[in-house]
Amino acid sequence: MLKKFTILSFILFIVSHQIKAQDNTAANFENQLNLLRNKIQTQQKLIHKNAETLRLQDDKIVELNNQLSTLKNAQSEQLTSFESKISGILGDYNTKIDDQNKVIEDLKASLSKKDFNLYLYIAIALCVALVLFVYFMKMATQKAITQQSKNWSDFLTYIVKR
After folding, report:
1. How far is CA 67 from CA 62, 64, 76, 132, in A?
2. Rounded CA gap, 11 and 5, in Å?
3. What DSSP designation does 1 have?
4. 122-143: b or e for each residue (b if 16 or more CB lie within 10 Å)?
5. Rounded to an integer, what distance in angstroms lies between the CA atom of residue 11 and that of residue 148?
6. pLDDT on residue 1
7. pLDDT in tens, the chain (162 residues)
8. Is 110 left (phi over 0), alpha (psi -120 to 50) or beta?
């Protein structure tokens, strides 16, 4: 019986030791479970906070997109207005250039006509000068021949008298 009592004591000792170990393990598991619950709560709070931040960022992105499209529309309208003003200015400028080109062409034609008239007057003046030159040359030649004849006659008379 002592043997039975020893075995039974040993079994009870082992069982109590196992129960204590299980209690310690259970307490350890419970502590770990509490730590995990706290971590989960902390993570859930962070997730909630990040979700709220993300929602605020999404709202800001939507607002910025709306502002961007408003700015794009305003710039597009300004660009269209600017292009129409530039087109009008360029159209006026082209009209003025065409008018100036027309005036230049008229002026060239007028100058060409004046140049032609000038050249015609110069040609006529040269012809008149040539005719006058020939006339005066003929007169000078005639006068020189007459003078030469007279001098020759005087010379011959002088020689004959001598």
Report:
1. 9, 5, 14, 93
2. 10
3. -
4. eeeeeeeeeeeeeeeeeeeeee
5. 184
6. 66
7. 667 778 877 787 787 777 777 777 777 888 888 899 999 999 999 999 999 999 999 999 999 999 999 999 999 998 888 888 888 888 888 888 888 888 888 887 887 788 888 888 889 999 999 999 999 999 999 999 999 999 989 988 988 887
8. alpha
| Angle (nearest 5°) at CA 52 between 47 and 53 | 95
Which residue's entry shows tokens 């003929």?
138
Q: Report the C-alpha gap between 111 and 106 in whole angstroms.
A: 8
- The 3-state secondary structure of 51-94 reads HHHHHHHHHHHHHHHHHHHHHHHHHHHHHHHHHHHHHHHHHHHH
Between CA 144 and CA 100 the distance in angstroms is: 63
- Write down how long the chain is: 162
Longest dimension (CA), the chain: 216
Residue whose token pair is 């065409």 = 98
Position of tokens 């204590």?
Answer: 20
pLDDT in tens, 74-114: 999 988 888 888 888 888 888 888 888 888 888 878 877 88
H or E, element range at 127 = helix 2-161
Question: Tokens representing 95?
Answer: 């009209």
